[in-house]
Automatic annotation (TrEMBL):
<dbReference type="InterPro" id="IPR002563">
    <property type="entry name" value="Flavin_Rdtase-like_dom"/>
</dbReference>
<keyword id="KW-0560">Oxidoreductase</keyword>
<protein>
    <submittedName>
        <fullName>Oxidoreductase</fullName>
    </submittedName>
</protein>
<feature type="domain" description="Flavin reductase like">
    <location>
        <begin position="18"/>
        <end position="159"/>
    </location>
</feature>
<dbReference type="GO" id="GO:0010181">
    <property type="term" value="F:FMN binding"/>
</dbReference>
<dbReference type="Pfam" id="PF01613">
    <property type="entry name" value="Flavin_Reduct"/>
</dbReference>
<dbReference type="GO" id="GO:0042602">
    <property type="term" value="F:riboflavin reductase (NADPH) activity"/>
</dbReference>
<dbReference type="InterPro" id="IPR012349">
    <property type="entry name" value="Split_barrel_FMN-bd"/>
</dbReference>
<dbReference type="InterPro" id="IPR050268">
    <property type="entry name" value="NADH-dep_flavin_reductase"/>
</dbReference>
Amino acid sequence: MADMGDMDAFTSRLDPDMCVVTAAAGGERAGCLVGFASQCSLRPVRFVVWLSEVNRTYRVARSAQFLAVHLLAREQVELAEIFGGRTGDDGVDKFRDVRWRKGHGGAVVLQDTEAWFVGRVVGQAGGGDHIGFVLDPVEWGALEGPGGPLLRLSDARDIEPGHPVG
């Protein structure tokens, strides 16, 4: 088995867009900052978000029929901190200080993000310590105008994870 430091030569060069994934099920809401997400099919359009198994959002998402995925503007580091640096396990209400509404199927849609979509969960895939939720988009939107640069991993590196990394 190769030393993981060898793989860092590749992964340290990546700078993916970050997104916030929200889930609602069984009377609970949860959300987290995610760096592992991508479109995974053209026809039909599908998107996959990878949630850490130690994250509360993963536990809520397992029972959710719909998840919402939100792109943040580069200057929305404070919003990223709410969903990336706070844990809901200790009673923190991440949604208290943000504008949100119910979307399709009861999904939690954050209102002040660059762009968002709600997706029906159509599958899950194991991937190590994260589980991929494959989503079929059913509702979407974006702020007016051309939009600016999106929040990337390099913009969020100073956010201390709200749950154990591993």
